[in-house]
Amino acid sequence: MMQWREGVVVQEIREWPGAVEYAVRLASAGDSGAEVRALAYTAMVGRPEPGDRVVLNASALLKGLGTGGLAFVVAIPDRLPEDAPDSPGHIVKARYTPQQQMFLAVDEQDSIHHDVLLDADSLDGMPVVVADLHSALPAVVAGIRLTMPEARVAYVMTDGGALPLAFSRAVAGLKEAGWLAASLTVGQAFGGDHEAVSVHSGLLAARHVVGADVTVVTQGPGNVGTGTRWGYSGIAAADALHAAHVLGGTSVAALRVSGADPRPRHRGISHHSTTAYGRALLSPAIVPVLAGGGELAALVRRQATLLAATSRADLDVVEIGTEGVLAALRQSPVGLSTMGRGLEEDLAAFVVSAVAGVAAAQRVSGR
Questions:
Q1: For 183, which of 103, 192, 256, 311 could close a Cys bridge (C-beta 3.0–4.6 Å)?
Q2: CATH code (residue 9)
Q3: Which residue has the higher pLDDT, 257 or 84?
Q4: Is residue 332 part of a domain?
Q5: Is the residue at 103 inside a domain?
Q6: Is the residue at 207 inside a domain?
């Protein structure tokens, strides 16, 4: 159930494309005077100013959730935003909710790209790196750029986590630094440089509209997990790999690995990866692992070999050298963080994601 609060904007904390974070003093009974963090998506609610009264959705904040554990501005009731300019688009996302919006999708009839995508049916072998967590994105891109600095990299965000792309400061920073050529939001996700109806059309647009050499697919920030084998949003990684295979792409399955997670099911190769790639996946994929390294790297190689031997899919476990990877990760224009741990706290998580990017770029450059 949604929990509503009312408050007054105290000050702006920070902003990035499409979103502004504020300090808001609550005015609701029982909370009066408490100050909370609140996020406004400017395309949806306008831009609050200090002193404005705002209506908040405080459900995630009150639950103390991690990635999404802040309040969201629902409306500025005393000062409604101006209507957006007319658009020919008719694809509705966040459908049948009070926050639904209408977009011009790259693949719909009124799009200037419709003719390009009308009969598009192949990715022409383009590598598609699929990862479970959104936090893998900067590391994967760092690996791509290490091998192929001039690569055009597209990002396809699925709707397993955050729906607004503007929630991701990582995407904003990677785009500003020129590390991403374009973002595409598919399914119910929205706010990318291009909207697409499906993962399939998003991948085709990445190749034929953006001109990507490599495309990375992850859900938005805010992975959902239940501790059960099948109840987690990252299971959709298998679906994205199926789409890449059907469309003639080169599927690269990035492993979710940790050397620091306190939960045994996520140490070494996470059970999320073993389920997605070992049980749900039915099409071929490359599975990059570290060559050499220490005890954890050796464990991951053994686990990956077992995964390939027992998977329903044809998995090709490929060992990738790590020369230059750590330096590339440290040059990331955005902070690296996964499950609250930074690069030095959980090195394996980011290095394994980066070598997935290296493996993809090698397929393009022929190295």
A1: 192
A2: 2.40.50
A3: 257
A4: yes
A5: no
A6: yes
CA-to-CA distance for 83 and 90, rounded, in angstroms? 16
The answer on pLDDT for 367 being more than 60 is: no
Supply 19's token pair.
């979103």
Beta strand spans in the chain (E)? 4-16, 19-26, 35-41, 53-57, 71-75, 91-93, 101-103, 127-130, 153-158, 182-186, 194-196, 214-219, 250-253, 257-258, 268-269, 285-290, 315-320, 337-338, 341-342
- Please say if the pLDDT value at position 83 is more than 60: yes
The count of other CB atoms within 10 Å of the CB of residue 279 is: 16
Range with lowest mean pLDDT among 99-113, 157-171, 252-266: 252-266
CB 273 within 8 A of CB 305: no
> What is the three-class DSSP state of 116?
helix
Edge-to-edge order in the sheet of strand 214-219 = 194-196, 182-186, 153-158, 214-219, 127-130, 250-253, 285-290, 315-320
DSSP state of 292: S
Q: What is the pLDDT of residue 98?
A: 87
Give the CA distances from residue 136 to residues 58, 163, 330, in Å, rounded to whole numbers and listed in that order. Answer: 28, 17, 14
Domain with 241, as residue range(s), is: 114-365
Distance CA(140)–CA(358), nearest Å, equals 8
Confidence of residue 134 (pLDDT cuts 50, 70, 90): very high
Residues 157, 35 share a domain: no
Residue 297 sits in a domain whose CATH number is 3.40.50
Domain count, the chain: 2
What average pLDDT does this structure show over 257-271? 85
